[in-house]
Amino acid sequence: MSIDAKNIVDVIPFLLLFWSVPVQLLGTFLFLWNVLDGPSSLACVSVMVFLIPFNSIISTLVRKLYARQMKNKDKRVRLMMEVLNGIKSIKLYAWEGFFKKNLKDVRNKEIKDLKNSAYLQSISSSVCPCSLIVVIFKYNLKVLLISRRIYRAGS
Q1: Total structural domains in the chain?
Q2: Model confidence at 51, in pLDDT bands (50, 70, 90)?
Q3: What is the CB neighbour count within 10 angstroms for residue 134?
């Protein structure tokens, strides 16, 4: 029950994104239209719009990895309970190596899923700042080209 409540609490901030993202994109587009003098702002906005499906794909992959990680965690917990409940039999028949190998295999799968999830989340969290850098680069390039044009016209 506590995990369900935590999931509900985690979703609430993202519900605000349904209405705030379109407003932010519109505001960004209007601001860039004024700063970059018109149609050249479409390239910057297209980069930001492209990132919306990219981030949703990454979040879908992270969700699948999380589900797989939970299944591996359940396997590991079940195996540990089996080991703890039958420790006398395991010691008597010298099955420590077998159970140790099984636990290690399940834990390695779990760690692999955790690493992949961390990689995907780091890619997702680094893409947004990169898009800002692309927009700033585009703006600086336009300023540079305009200043060269003014300099050549003045010569």
Answers
A1: 1
A2: confident
A3: 14
